[in-house]
């Protein structure tokens, strides 16, 4: 569409049989356009340019009498959609989530022992211009981990949690020419640290989670992760496989969701003022 011309009132379409159909176009809002100065939203007949204010959409989670307002500046290419809550008579606390990365992306690939899977991950990193990545459920023994990690990530820096989890549940690797990952805390079920962008010095806390399989084992996850986040003032992103769900909509089949399954996860999100990021793509793999 040529923005140097007035927006069309009709468009022509061709159906599968080759017949041309003229379709009327209706606009919810149509800007002013003046042929003399070729500017949109401006009229040469008016001396003053009217500024149009556009509202910024926010979403948040209630937390101890406050609403955490999160600016929607992230793109996420797969996962679950965020819920929205509106505050009523409570103070609002803004949380800046500006981010210089193009997108948050993920892949459902599991296991890194096979060469073809290593190549697939390398291609994923290159095609999506990834500079920081977490690998869960790699199924690689500690004795082989260093060699495989170097094949995949070349000269990147990396850490793993074999010291906390014999099976090596989490790897994190990053391109040290673009970002640093510092002050991290190791745990059997997570690694949390601070990401610093080299280009502009922006900081945010980044945590990768791989939760245990039982409600009882995950209680330690929520308790310890909350301690690790205590006092943090920078924006924070937590992502990974929690091995649990938030609502019955997150389970396609199987037994009905019981409240005891989701309570701890919900409470953790509520207490820490977190909210689920909006995503696009398939919800189930």
From TrEMBL:
Domain of life (superkingdom): Eukaryota
Protein species of origin: Nicotiana tabacum (Common tobacco)
Q: What is this protein called?
A: Uncharacterized protein LOC107826925
């Amino acid at each position: 569409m040529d923005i140097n011309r007035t927006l069309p009132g009709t468009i022509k379409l061709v159906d599968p049989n080759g017949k041309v159909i003229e379709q009327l176009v209706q606009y919810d809002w149509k800007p002013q356009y003046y042929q003399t100065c070729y500017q949109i939203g401006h009229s040469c007949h008016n001396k003053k340019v009217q500024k149009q204010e556009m509202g910024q959409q926010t979403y948040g989670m209630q937390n101890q009498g406050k609403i955490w307002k999160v600016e929607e500046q992230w793109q996420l290419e797969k996962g679950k959609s965020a819920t929205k809550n509106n505050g009523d008579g409570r103070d609002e606390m803004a949380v800046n989530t500006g981010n210089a990365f193009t997108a948050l992306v993920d892949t459902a690939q599991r296991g890194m022992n096979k060469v073809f899977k290593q190549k697939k991950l390398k291609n994923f990193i290159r095609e999506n211009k990834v500079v920081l990545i977490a690998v869960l459920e790699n199924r690689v023994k500690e004795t082989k981990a260093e060699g495989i990690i170097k094949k995949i990530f070349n000269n990147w820096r990396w850490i793993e949690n074999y010291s906390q989890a014999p099976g090596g549940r989490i790897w994190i690797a990053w391109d040290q020419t673009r970002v640093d990952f510092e002050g991290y805390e190791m745990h059997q079920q997570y690694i949390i640290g601070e990401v610093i962008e080299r280009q502009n010095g922006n900081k945010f806390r980044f945590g990768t989670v791989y939760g245990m399989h039982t409600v009882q084992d995950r209680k330690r996850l929520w308790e310890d992760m909350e301690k690790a986040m205590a006092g943090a003032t920078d924006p924070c992103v937590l992502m990974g496989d929690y091995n649990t769900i938030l609502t019955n909509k997150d389970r396609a089949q199987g037994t009905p969701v019981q409240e005891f399954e989701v309570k701890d996860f919900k409470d953790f999100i509520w207490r820490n003022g977190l909210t689920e990021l909006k995503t696009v793509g398939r919800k189930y793999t």
